[in-house]
Amino acid sequence: MILALSKFSSVRIGDPEKVDRILNAMRKAGPNTVQVISDFDMTLTRFAFNGKRCPTCHNILDNSKLISEECKEQLKELLNTYYPIEIDSTRSVEDKLPFMVEWWTKAHNLMVQQKIKKDLLATAVKESDAMLRDGYKGLFDHLKEQNIPLLVFSAGIGDVLEEVIRQAGVFYPNVKVISNYMDFDETGTLQAFKGELIHTYNKREGALLNTGLFEELNDRHNVLLMGDSLGDLNMADGVQNMDNILKIGYLNDKVDAWMETYLNSYDIVLVKDETMEVPNAILHYITGSQ
Ligand SMILES: Nc1ccn([C@@H]2O[C@H](COP(=O)(O)O)[C@@H](O)[C@H]2O)c(=O)n1
Question: Which residues span the membrane (predicted)?
Fold first, then answer.
């Protein structure tokens, strides 16, 4: 399998023997023991298309008709202030935490002030440039056929990402979501966000708060994890009695600065890869359907 992966030019592997060992153990254990836990923004969705950045869940709304011009400016300012901190390789996660809480809180407050209507979300998604990565249909279809659960764990906006997946025609019953969900009043107007805030770097807390979802998957001790940030590495922390975990990391931005850290953190690093080809090849190998 390792040899087969080397044909993909985006693939970097720090410890090929470890990857080989995990893949073979998962293949031997069989599809009934496997679950997939994936981040959404810039992992299931594209980072860029034709040289232009693709939107995150938040950006889908930021750029939509649901937000006034003045508010768009404020949201853009937040993005310009906090995104560089989010991806700064010289700062520690601990250092970044308060800034992430500040960013999400300010952005959500601005969205609430815009009195966003629930029934207009679908149009905002339809009119956006959001794109799932090439090969997404193969991934979702294969997981559905093999009865493998897919847990989407996102610091984005649940209502928006569900709509993206729904409009792509792949929101199958095996797909579950942990994310920030909007709270609408009886008129369908956004009045708050529900529950504990999930941001890039507190997914461990999010996982431990949602152990109920993981309990449903108690007999699935083999995890394929897909993410694009160091915060995503904690998405499987709610899984009990893990046998094997294979971590696939999309390295989309600041490649040189992050390469070493990603190679030390993820088992397989995909550099500027806008496709699902590698996760698909791996899943086919694990399920014995190649
Ligand atoms: N106001 C905001 C807040 C966050 N973002 C981006 O959304 C991404 C969501 O996180 P994932 O867990 O789905 O990766 C995050 O990486 C932020 O850059 C935003 O665009 N606007």
Answer: none
